[in-house]
From TrEMBL:
Organism per entry: Xiphophorus couchianus (Monterrey platyfish)
Membrane topology, as annotated: Single-pass membrane protein; Single-pass type II membrane protein
Ranges annotated as spanning the membrane: 9-30
Protein name: Polypeptide N-acetylgalactosaminyltransferase 5
Gene Ontology terms: biological process: protein O-linked glycosylation
Protein backbone atom coordinates (compact mmCIF):
# COMPACT_ATOMS: atom_id res chain seq x y z
CA UNK A 1 0.00 0.00 0.00
CA UNK A 2 1.44 3.34 -1.17
CA UNK A 3 1.24 6.57 0.73
CA UNK A 4 -0.24 9.72 -0.91
CA UNK A 5 3.15 11.35 -1.62
CA UNK A 6 4.33 8.13 -3.23
CA UNK A 7 1.20 7.92 -5.42
CA UNK A 8 1.62 11.54 -6.46
CA UNK A 9 5.20 10.88 -7.43
CA UNK A 10 4.26 7.80 -9.48
CA UNK A 11 1.44 9.72 -11.16
CA UNK A 12 3.77 12.62 -11.99
CA UNK A 13 6.44 10.24 -13.30
CA UNK A 14 4.01 8.37 -15.56
CA UNK A 15 2.46 11.61 -16.82
CA UNK A 16 5.90 13.03 -17.63
CA UNK A 17 7.06 9.79 -19.24
CA UNK A 18 4.13 9.62 -21.62
CA UNK A 19 3.51 13.31 -22.31
CA UNK A 20 7.08 14.60 -22.65
CA UNK A 21 7.82 12.77 -25.94
CA UNK A 22 4.46 13.94 -27.30
CA UNK A 23 5.27 17.52 -26.28
CA UNK A 24 8.72 17.37 -27.86
CA UNK A 25 7.30 15.98 -31.12
CA UNK A 26 4.70 18.74 -31.32
CA UNK A 27 7.24 21.43 -30.40
CA UNK A 28 9.81 20.44 -33.01
CA UNK A 29 7.12 19.92 -35.61
CA UNK A 30 5.89 23.45 -35.05
CA UNK A 31 9.45 24.74 -35.10
CA UNK A 32 10.15 23.04 -38.42
CA UNK A 33 6.98 24.45 -39.90
CA UNK A 34 7.90 27.88 -38.60
CA UNK A 35 11.33 27.67 -40.25
CA UNK A 36 9.83 26.43 -43.52
CA UNK A 37 7.42 29.33 -43.57
CA UNK A 38 10.26 31.83 -43.80
CA UNK A 39 12.00 30.09 -46.70
CA UNK A 40 12.05 32.17 -49.87
CA UNK A 41 9.56 30.92 -52.43
CA UNK A 42 9.31 31.44 -56.15
CA UNK A 43 5.89 32.05 -57.59
CA UNK A 44 5.59 29.86 -60.65
CA UNK A 45 3.03 31.15 -63.08
CA UNK A 46 2.03 27.68 -64.10
CA UNK A 47 -1.13 26.96 -65.99
CA UNK A 48 -4.05 24.98 -64.60
CA UNK A 49 -2.62 21.84 -66.18
CA UNK A 50 0.61 21.95 -64.18
CA UNK A 51 0.73 19.41 -61.38
CA UNK A 52 4.43 18.83 -60.74
CA UNK A 53 6.18 20.09 -57.61
CA UNK A 54 9.21 22.12 -58.67
CA UNK A 55 12.46 23.14 -57.03
CA UNK A 56 12.90 26.88 -56.47
CA UNK A 57 16.17 27.42 -58.34
CA UNK A 58 16.71 29.60 -61.40
CA UNK A 59 19.55 30.82 -63.61
CA UNK A 60 20.05 32.98 -66.68
CA UNK A 61 19.59 31.27 -70.02
CA UNK A 62 22.84 29.61 -71.07
CA UNK A 63 24.21 31.00 -74.35
CA UNK A 64 26.39 28.02 -75.21
CA UNK A 65 28.27 27.53 -78.46
CA UNK A 66 30.92 24.86 -77.93
CA UNK A 67 32.91 23.28 -80.76
CA UNK A 68 35.48 20.47 -80.80
CA UNK A 69 38.02 22.63 -82.62
CA UNK A 70 38.59 26.38 -83.07
CA UNK A 71 36.61 27.94 -85.89
CA UNK A 72 38.27 29.50 -88.92
CA UNK A 73 37.05 33.13 -88.90
CA UNK A 74 37.74 33.39 -92.64
CA UNK A 75 35.74 30.32 -93.63
CA UNK A 76 32.97 30.68 -96.20
CA UNK A 77 29.68 31.63 -94.56
CA UNK A 78 31.24 31.97 -91.11
CA UNK A 79 29.11 34.03 -88.67
CA UNK A 80 26.21 33.77 -91.09
CA UNK A 81 27.75 36.11 -93.63
CA UNK A 82 26.24 36.01 -97.14
CA UNK A 83 28.38 34.52 -99.87
CA UNK A 84 28.48 35.68 -103.49
CA UNK A 85 29.90 33.03 -105.78
CA UNK A 86 31.78 34.03 -108.94
CA UNK A 87 29.94 33.57 -112.21
CA UNK A 88 32.30 30.76 -113.15
CA UNK A 89 30.61 28.59 -110.50
CA UNK A 90 27.06 29.02 -111.81
CA UNK A 91 27.19 25.86 -113.89
CA UNK A 92 28.27 23.82 -110.86
CA UNK A 93 25.55 25.42 -108.73
CA UNK A 94 22.83 24.54 -111.25
CA UNK A 95 24.22 21.06 -111.77
CA UNK A 96 23.81 20.25 -108.07
CA UNK A 97 20.65 22.26 -107.43
CA UNK A 98 18.28 19.31 -107.77
CA UNK A 99 20.11 17.36 -105.06
CA UNK A 100 18.29 19.42 -102.45
CA UNK A 101 16.44 22.13 -104.39
CA UNK A 102 18.70 24.77 -102.88
CA UNK A 103 22.32 25.81 -103.37
CA UNK A 104 23.97 22.52 -102.41
CA UNK A 105 27.31 23.59 -103.89
CA UNK A 106 27.52 26.57 -101.56
CA UNK A 107 26.25 24.62 -98.57
CA UNK A 108 29.12 22.17 -98.98
CA UNK A 109 31.63 25.05 -98.78
CA UNK A 110 30.31 26.25 -95.41
CA UNK A 111 31.67 24.65 -92.20
CA UNK A 112 29.24 22.19 -90.60
CA UNK A 113 29.83 23.81 -87.20
CA UNK A 114 29.93 27.45 -88.28
CA UNK A 115 29.08 30.30 -85.93
CA UNK A 116 25.87 32.25 -86.48
CA UNK A 117 24.92 35.71 -85.19
CA UNK A 118 22.77 35.93 -82.07
CA UNK A 119 19.48 37.20 -83.47
CA UNK A 120 17.46 37.09 -80.26
CA UNK A 121 15.95 40.25 -78.74
CA UNK A 122 18.57 41.75 -76.42
CA UNK A 123 16.71 41.01 -73.18
CA UNK A 124 16.48 37.28 -73.94
CA UNK A 125 19.97 36.67 -72.57
CA UNK A 126 18.82 38.02 -69.18
CA UNK A 127 15.76 35.78 -68.91
CA UNK A 128 15.63 33.34 -66.01
CA UNK A 129 14.81 29.65 -66.39
CA UNK A 130 14.52 26.93 -63.78
CA UNK A 131 17.44 24.72 -62.82
CA UNK A 132 15.52 21.45 -63.06
CA UNK A 133 14.17 21.67 -66.58
CA UNK A 134 13.14 18.37 -68.18
CA UNK A 135 15.47 16.56 -70.56
CA UNK A 136 14.70 16.33 -74.25
CA UNK A 137 15.17 13.98 -77.16
CA UNK A 138 15.76 15.85 -80.42
CA UNK A 139 14.33 13.95 -83.40
CA UNK A 140 15.48 14.56 -86.98
CA UNK A 141 13.74 12.65 -89.77
CA UNK A 142 15.33 12.64 -93.21
CA UNK A 143 15.30 11.00 -96.60
CA UNK A 144 18.19 11.64 -98.99
CA UNK A 145 19.10 14.83 -97.11
CA UNK A 146 22.14 16.76 -98.31
CA UNK A 147 25.21 15.73 -96.29
CA UNK A 148 26.34 19.20 -95.26
CA UNK A 149 22.89 20.41 -94.16
CA UNK A 150 22.19 17.28 -92.11
CA UNK A 151 25.55 17.57 -90.34
CA UNK A 152 25.09 21.29 -89.78
CA UNK A 153 21.69 20.60 -88.20
CA UNK A 154 23.13 18.04 -85.79
CA UNK A 155 26.17 20.15 -84.90
CA UNK A 156 24.01 23.18 -84.14
CA UNK A 157 22.06 21.14 -81.58
CA UNK A 158 25.17 19.58 -80.03
CA UNK A 159 27.08 22.87 -79.87
CA UNK A 160 24.30 25.10 -78.53
CA UNK A 161 22.33 22.86 -76.18
CA UNK A 162 23.10 22.46 -72.45
CA UNK A 163 24.51 18.91 -72.24
CA UNK A 164 22.52 18.02 -69.12
CA UNK A 165 19.26 18.78 -70.95
CA UNK A 166 20.08 17.03 -74.23
CA UNK A 167 19.26 13.40 -73.50
CA UNK A 168 19.90 12.26 -77.06
CA UNK A 169 19.57 13.03 -80.74
CA UNK A 170 17.70 10.47 -82.83
CA UNK A 171 18.22 10.47 -86.60
CA UNK A 172 15.42 8.59 -88.34
CA UNK A 173 16.50 7.55 -91.83
CA UNK A 174 13.34 7.09 -93.90
CA UNK A 175 14.88 4.58 -96.32
CA UNK A 176 17.38 6.94 -97.94
CA UNK A 177 19.02 5.83 -101.17
CA UNK A 178 22.19 7.96 -100.99
CA UNK A 179 25.34 5.96 -100.22
CA UNK A 180 26.80 8.71 -98.01
CA UNK A 181 23.82 8.35 -95.64
CA UNK A 182 24.68 4.74 -94.84
CA UNK A 183 28.07 3.59 -93.49
CA UNK A 184 29.64 7.02 -93.93
CA UNK A 185 26.95 8.60 -91.74
CA UNK A 186 27.23 5.81 -89.17
CA UNK A 187 30.97 6.33 -88.92
CA UNK A 188 30.70 10.11 -88.65
CA UNK A 189 28.03 10.06 -85.94
CA UNK A 190 29.83 7.38 -83.92
CA UNK A 191 32.01 10.15 -82.45
CA UNK A 192 28.96 11.60 -80.69
CA UNK A 193 27.63 9.29 -77.93
CA UNK A 194 24.35 11.19 -77.73
CA UNK A 195 23.49 10.55 -81.38
CA UNK A 196 21.85 7.36 -82.57
CA UNK A 197 20.45 6.41 -85.94
CA UNK A 198 17.24 4.49 -86.65
CA UNK A 199 16.84 3.13 -90.16
CA UNK A 200 13.42 2.33 -91.57
CA UNK A 201 13.41 -0.59 -94.01
CA UNK A 202 10.73 0.93 -96.22
CA UNK A 203 9.74 4.50 -96.98
CA UNK A 204 7.20 5.63 -94.37
CA UNK A 205 7.10 9.40 -94.85
CA UNK A 206 7.72 12.18 -92.34
CA UNK A 207 4.69 11.47 -90.15
CA UNK A 208 5.32 7.78 -89.46
CA UNK A 209 9.09 8.39 -89.30
CA UNK A 210 8.51 10.86 -86.47
CA UNK A 211 6.33 8.31 -84.71
CA UNK A 212 9.16 5.77 -84.98
CA UNK A 213 11.57 8.20 -83.33
CA UNK A 214 9.13 9.20 -80.61
CA UNK A 215 8.42 5.56 -79.74
CA UNK A 216 12.02 4.94 -78.62
CA UNK A 217 12.86 8.40 -77.23
CA UNK A 218 14.25 8.50 -73.69
CA UNK A 219 13.88 12.23 -72.97
CA UNK A 220 10.98 13.68 -70.99
CA UNK A 221 10.25 16.12 -73.83
CA UNK A 222 10.22 15.45 -77.56
CA UNK A 223 11.74 18.15 -79.77
CA UNK A 224 11.05 17.69 -83.47
CA UNK A 225 13.31 19.51 -85.93
CA UNK A 226 13.68 19.41 -89.70
CA UNK A 227 16.98 18.11 -91.05
CA UNK A 228 18.02 21.38 -92.73
CA UNK A 229 18.10 23.83 -89.82
CA UNK A 230 20.58 25.68 -87.61
CA UNK A 231 19.77 26.31 -83.96
CA UNK A 232 20.90 29.62 -82.51
CA UNK A 233 22.42 30.16 -79.06
CA UNK A 234 20.05 29.81 -76.13
CA UNK A 235 17.44 28.07 -78.28
CA UNK A 236 16.56 25.09 -76.09
CA UNK A 237 15.99 26.32 -72.53
CA UNK A 238 13.18 28.79 -73.41
CA UNK A 239 11.26 25.92 -75.03
CA UNK A 240 11.74 23.54 -72.11
CA UNK A 241 10.83 26.29 -69.63
CA UNK A 242 7.34 26.56 -71.14
CA UNK A 243 6.81 22.80 -70.87
CA UNK A 244 8.18 22.93 -67.31
CA UNK A 245 5.57 25.50 -66.29
CA UNK A 246 2.74 23.63 -67.98
CA UNK A 247 3.12 20.19 -69.52
CA UNK A 248 0.33 20.93 -72.00
CA UNK A 249 2.06 23.92 -73.52
CA UNK A 250 3.60 23.18 -76.92
CA UNK A 251 6.29 25.79 -77.67
CA UNK A 252 7.70 26.50 -81.13
CA UNK A 253 10.87 28.48 -81.90
CA UNK A 254 10.84 31.51 -84.16
CA UNK A 255 11.69 30.26 -87.65
CA UNK A 256 14.19 32.84 -88.79
CA UNK A 257 13.57 32.77 -92.51
CA UNK A 258 9.85 33.49 -92.14
CA UNK A 259 9.78 36.34 -89.65
CA UNK A 260 11.06 37.41 -86.27
CA UNK A 261 8.64 40.11 -85.12
CA UNK A 262 5.13 39.70 -83.77
CA UNK A 263 4.18 36.82 -86.04
CA UNK A 264 1.83 33.97 -85.29
CA UNK A 265 0.70 30.94 -87.25
CA UNK A 266 -2.81 30.83 -88.66
CA UNK A 267 -4.72 28.62 -91.04
CA UNK A 268 -6.74 29.72 -94.02
CA UNK A 269 -9.34 27.70 -95.86
CA UNK A 270 -8.79 25.13 -97.22
CA UNK A 271 -6.41 24.38 -94.30
CA UNK A 272 -3.40 26.24 -95.66
CA UNK A 273 -0.86 27.40 -93.09
CA UNK A 274 0.26 31.03 -93.11
CA UNK A 275 1.63 33.80 -90.93
CA UNK A 276 -0.28 36.82 -89.70
CA UNK A 277 0.87 39.73 -87.51
CA UNK A 278 -0.51 39.95 -84.00
CA UNK A 279 -3.07 42.81 -84.08
CA UNK A 280 -1.78 46.06 -82.61
CA UNK A 281 -4.75 46.32 -80.22
CA UNK A 282 -3.94 42.87 -78.82
CA UNK A 283 -0.33 43.92 -78.23
CA UNK A 284 -1.43 47.06 -76.38
CA UNK A 285 -4.22 45.38 -74.42
CA UNK A 286 -1.90 42.67 -73.12
CA UNK A 287 1.11 44.98 -72.76
CA UNK A 288 3.11 42.48 -74.80
CA UNK A 289 6.90 42.65 -74.87
CA UNK A 290 9.09 41.41 -77.70
CA UNK A 291 10.14 38.45 -75.55
CA UNK A 292 6.64 37.33 -74.54
CA UNK A 293 5.32 34.00 -75.84
CA UNK A 294 2.76 34.37 -78.64
CA UNK A 295 -0.25 32.04 -78.60
CA UNK A 296 -0.99 30.53 -82.01
CA UNK A 297 -3.98 28.67 -83.44
CA UNK A 298 -1.69 26.35 -85.42
CA UNK A 299 2.00 25.58 -85.80
CA UNK A 300 4.13 25.44 -88.92
CA UNK A 301 4.74 21.82 -87.95
CA UNK A 302 8.44 21.31 -88.55
CA UNK A 303 9.91 22.59 -85.29
CA UNK A 304 8.39 22.24 -81.82
CA UNK A 305 8.77 20.71 -78.36
CA UNK A 306 6.10 18.68 -76.56
CA UNK A 307 5.93 16.71 -73.32
CA UNK A 308 6.38 13.07 -74.34
CA UNK A 309 3.56 11.73 -72.18
CA UNK A 310 1.21 14.47 -73.37
CA UNK A 311 2.13 13.71 -77.00
CA UNK A 312 0.96 10.14 -76.59
CA UNK A 313 -2.05 11.15 -74.49
CA UNK A 314 -3.16 13.15 -77.53
CA UNK A 315 -2.80 10.05 -79.68
CA UNK A 316 0.46 11.31 -81.23
CA UNK A 317 0.29 11.83 -84.99
CA UNK A 318 -2.47 10.10 -86.91
CA UNK A 319 -0.62 7.16 -88.53
CA UNK A 320 -3.27 7.19 -91.25
CA UNK A 321 -1.77 10.39 -92.70
CA UNK A 322 0.57 9.63 -95.58
CA UNK A 323 4.11 10.92 -96.12
CA UNK A 324 3.81 14.68 -95.53
CA UNK A 325 1.15 17.37 -95.39
CA UNK A 326 -1.67 18.17 -92.99
CA UNK A 327 0.08 16.77 -89.93
CA UNK A 328 0.64 20.27 -88.57
CA UNK A 329 -3.10 20.99 -88.73
CA UNK A 330 -3.97 17.66 -87.14
CA UNK A 331 -1.61 18.01 -84.18
CA UNK A 332 -2.62 21.67 -83.71
CA UNK A 333 -6.34 20.85 -83.54
CA UNK A 334 -5.61 18.03 -81.10
CA UNK A 335 -3.60 20.29 -78.81
CA UNK A 336 -6.18 23.10 -78.60
CA UNK A 337 -9.20 20.78 -78.39
CA UNK A 338 -7.61 18.64 -75.69
CA UNK A 339 -6.61 21.31 -73.18
CA UNK A 340 -3.26 22.41 -74.57
CA UNK A 341 -1.79 25.60 -76.01
CA UNK A 342 0.58 26.35 -78.88
CA UNK A 343 3.07 29.17 -78.44
CA UNK A 344 5.84 30.79 -80.45
CA UNK A 345 8.81 31.65 -78.22
CA UNK A 346 10.66 34.77 -79.46
CA UNK A 347 13.76 33.92 -77.41
CA UNK A 348 14.20 30.59 -79.19
CA UNK A 349 15.51 31.00 -82.74
CA UNK A 350 16.10 28.35 -85.37
CA UNK A 351 17.15 29.04 -88.95
CA UNK A 352 15.48 26.93 -91.64
CA UNK A 353 16.17 26.35 -95.33
CA UNK A 354 12.89 26.67 -97.22
CA UNK A 355 12.85 24.89 -100.54
CA UNK A 356 10.70 25.61 -103.56
CA UNK A 357 9.69 21.95 -103.72
CA UNK A 358 10.39 18.65 -102.01
CA UNK A 359 13.53 17.01 -103.42
CA UNK A 360 12.16 13.50 -102.82
CA UNK A 361 9.35 11.62 -104.52
CA UNK A 362 5.95 10.81 -103.04
CA UNK A 363 4.82 7.17 -103.40
CA UNK A 364 1.64 8.65 -104.86
CA UNK A 365 0.98 11.99 -106.50
CA UNK A 366 2.10 14.80 -104.16
CA UNK A 367 -1.02 16.94 -104.52
CA UNK A 368 -3.36 13.99 -104.08
CA UNK A 369 -1.48 12.84 -101.00
CA UNK A 370 -1.73 16.25 -99.32
CA UNK A 371 -5.38 16.64 -100.28
CA UNK A 372 -6.21 13.22 -98.88
CA UNK A 373 -4.44 14.05 -95.62
CA UNK A 374 -6.28 17.35 -95.25
CA UNK A 375 -9.63 15.71 -95.97
CA UNK A 376 -8.91 13.12 -93.28
CA UNK A 377 -8.08 15.88 -90.76
CA UNK A 378 -11.27 17.74 -91.66
CA UNK A 379 -13.45 14.65 -91.28
CA UNK A 380 -12.01 13.81 -87.87
CA UNK A 381 -11.70 17.25 -86.26
CA UNK A 382 -13.88 19.88 -87.93
CA UNK A 383 -17.35 18.36 -87.43
CA UNK A 384 -19.94 20.74 -88.93
CA UNK A 385 -17.19 23.15 -90.01
CA UNK A 386 -15.82 20.67 -92.55
CA UNK A 387 -18.22 22.12 -95.12
CA UNK A 388 -16.14 25.30 -95.06
CA UNK A 389 -13.12 23.18 -95.94
CA UNK A 390 -14.76 21.30 -98.80
CA UNK A 391 -16.61 24.33 -100.12
CA UNK A 392 -13.68 26.71 -100.28
CA UNK A 393 -12.82 27.14 -103.94
CA UNK A 394 -14.01 23.60 -104.74
CA UNK A 395 -10.41 22.50 -104.46
CA UNK A 396 -11.12 19.31 -102.57
CA UNK A 397 -14.20 17.09 -102.50
CA UNK A 398 -15.22 14.49 -99.91
CA UNK A 399 -14.44 10.86 -100.56
Amino acid sequence: QYTMPTCNFIYFFLLTFFLLPFYLIVYFSLDVNRKEDVKPKINLQAGDNSSAVRKPGVHKVLSLDATHAPRDPNAVGQFGQPVILPGSKNAEVMKRWNEGHFNVYLSDQIPVDRAVPDTRPETCAQNLVHNDLPTTTVIFCFVDEVWSTLLRSVHSVLNRSPPHLLKEIILVDDASTKDYLKEQLDEYMSQFPRVRIIRLKERQGLIRARLAGAAVAKGEVLTFLDSHIECNVGWLEPLLERVYLDRKKVPCPVIEVISDKDMRGIFKWPLVFGWSPVPEDVIKKNNMKVTDPIRCPVMAGGLFSIDKKYFFELGAYDPGLDVWGGENMEISFKIWMCGGEIEIIPCSRVGHIFRGQNPYKFPKDRQKTVERNLARVAEVWLDEYKDLFYGHGNLITPG
